[in-house]
Amino acid sequence: MKRAVVVALLLGACTLAATARADGDPASDYLYTLKVFLPFDVKVPKTRQRELVSFVEAVNRSGYPIRVAVIGSSYDLGSVTSLWRQPRTYARFLGAELQFVYSKRLLIVMPSGFGIYWKGHPVDREYAVLSKVPIGKSPSGLVDAAQEAVSKLAAASGVKVTKPTPAVVPQAGGGHSRAVIILAAVGAVAVAVLARLALRRPR
After folding, report:
1. Do residues 56 and 35 touch, judged by C-beta distance below 8 A?
2. pLDDT tens, 159-182?
3. Sequence-ordered list of residues with C-beta below 8 angstroms from that of 99, at least 6 positions apart, any chain
4. pTM for this entry
């Protein structure tokens, strides 16, 4: 019975994810409810992905609200591939997409550079900080750059980040835990897609 429920949930998640992928740029769907968007087709080690997500969560808990989109290729931009290699322009575009549910700091990381947007606030100081952060050419280099950028931005605002607790990986046989994780993931994607559709519905 549990296996059937998990399979049904996975099918639902795939359908929702496909809808999100087809609707404009994927990051705008993910960042409605999540704090980090990671590339689809750039092979970033899972450990580094978890570390970045944990770190960004810790920064937010420490009092520095920020969401991060790591864009590894034009594929990650969905229908707005014209903004590839234009992180500053894309930051403004994505910020406008998210403004009804999130209007704090938004960081974009592309191989070509950084973009940052904060509705109603100048970001010259943030760009000065980001200009000193190198971006490596490898997939891990993008994630490393994202984490260093968030760390330096928070420090420049006087925010001391509490070291995040390492993520716990479920052990073999933990079927119940896996089901809970899948339910949470499906719920997050569903909320994001429904919110997106509601905001775009003609009034």
Report:
1. yes
2. 988 766 554 433 333 333 344 334
3. 119
4. 0.72
Cα 34 from chain centroid (whole Å) = 6
How open is the CA angle 54-58-59, to the nearest 5 degrees? 120
86 pLDDT band, cuts 50/70/90, is very high
3-state SS of the chain is CHHHHHHHHHHHHHHHHHHHHHCCCHHHHHCCCCCEECCCCCCCCHHHHHHHHHHHHHHHHCCCCEEEEECCCHHHHCCCHHHCCCHHHHHHHHHHHHCCCCCCEEEEEECCEEEEECCCCCCHHHHHHHCCCCCCCCHHHHHHHHHHHHHHHHHHCCCCCCCCCCCCCCCCCCHHHHHHHHHHHHHHHHHHHHHHHHHHCCC
141: Cβ–Cβ under 8 A, 6 or more apart, which residues? 135
- Encoding tokens for residue 65? 């609200």
pLDDT in tens, 118-147: 999 999 999 999 999 999 988 899 999 999
Residue type, 53: V
